[in-house]
Design brief:
single chain, 183 residues, mainly alpha, 3 helices, disordered N terminus
Length: 183
Amino acid sequence: VPRDDPAGHSMNHPLLGDPASVSALGATLRRTALELTAHADRVRATLDDASPGWTGPRAVATRQRVDRVAASAAASAATLDECARSLQQSAAELAATTARLRALEEEAAAAGLQVRDGTVHRAWGITGVADAGGEAAGADRREELQGRVHQLVSGLGSDRARLAADCRRAAHELALAAAALRT
């Protein structure tokens, strides 16, 4: 939802993302991991309850298959849980970065500057008295704020790259587990 300051400047960061949605996805993965673990435990318990005294090659093969499925489910649950943890961490970092960018925009506005598309500019209109000292101080302030914007955006990019790598790794591990179960 866009938020406007008193001067009517948009304080919206649509490209940053939605920390609540990222967090919700992490929570869903965590619940799925817990459910998968519970299902694996129930499969093992059901086999144990249903087969007292069951012997022979068919019983051994069935127990081995159930053990492989349960071990795969446990490994998949761990992978989902790691991915959920990564998503939760990213959601927290995204929320903090968004808050810091909004605070930086307010600082810029107080200095007669404006942050537009990741760049600090002089605000439109008359923002002060025209004098050489004031211009130099304003330019220094603009450069300082621009450095902070770049630092925040760079950190956000690093976090997104880490999250993407974590998700790729999780997808690969889950694909391997699914392929192993099909054989």
